[in-house]
Amino acid sequence: MKALGREFYNRDSVIVAQELLGKILVHEINGQKISVKIVEAEAYMGTFDRAAHSFGGRRTPRVEVMYGRPGFAYVFLVYGMYHCFNIVTREEGIPQAVLIRAAEPVGGLDLIAQNRFKKSYHLLRKSQVKNLTNGPGKLCRALLIDKSLNGEDLCSNKLYVEEGDNEKLPIVASKRIGIDYAGEAKDYLWRFYIDNHEYVSVK
DNA sequence: ACCGCGATGCCCT
DNA sequence: GGGCATCGCGGTA
C-alpha cells in the first residue's frame, strides 16, 4: 500500500479527522512494521479554537510545525511523560491539526506488546490487550512515537497513513477530551470515533 | 466497577 | 512558577 498524498491533508481538520477513521497508521522501524487502524481522532481548528495550541495565532517553537505544510507530524509532550501524535492539516500559514487519540492494533502485534508491556502478545492479560492503543499516550508508546518525529513528513515511507477497508463506518461526533480550560470551545463536537469500537478511549 | 491522586518535564508567562 | 490535548495505581465496593 501507499501513503496518502499531501492533498488529503490540505483540508479543514474537522473533515480530515473524520476521514482518517478506518485508515491505517504505519511506523516502519529497522525494517519492522507496526500498523494500527485509527478509530478516534480530534480536530484542532487553529487560531479561533480556544483548545488549540495555536489559538489566537500563538506561534512558539513548540507549535511551529502547525504553521507549515499539511501532512507533517506534530508531536508534543504532556504531563511530563506522554506524547501526543497529531497530523498537520491545511496549507502553510493555517495552523490546524488532527490529534490521533486511539487505534486498533492490526500488524506487528508482538512489537506493540513489547513496547507497551515488555512481553509478547500471546502472554498479555485481557486487560492489557484492551489497553494497548486506546488513548493518545498509549498509542505513542505502542508505535514508538516521540518528539524525535516532530516535523516528520507523513508523505513518505517511514511514518505514514494508508487506505484501510473502504467500508462505510458508523461515526459518532462528541466533545473533545481533557480541554476543560478551553471556554466555549470545550463543547464543540470535534471528536470523532467509530461507534461501539472496543479501542475507543472514552465511550 | 468507579474514584482520586501522583508522576514528571517542558513550555510559556 | 503554574499548568498541561494522560495514564496507571491503590483504595473502596
Automatic annotation (TrEMBL):
Keyword tags: DNA damage, DNA repair, Glycosidase, Hydrolase
Organism for this UniProt entry: bioreactor metagenome
InterPro entries, A to Z: Formyl_transferase-like_C_sf, MPG, MPG_sf
EC number from the UniProt entry: 3.2.2.-
GO MF, any single term: DNA binding
Pfam family, one: Pur_DNA_glyco
Protein family (similarity comment): Belongs to the DNA glycosylase MPG family.
This protein's name: Putative 3-methyladenine DNA glycosylase
One record GO biological process: base-excision repair
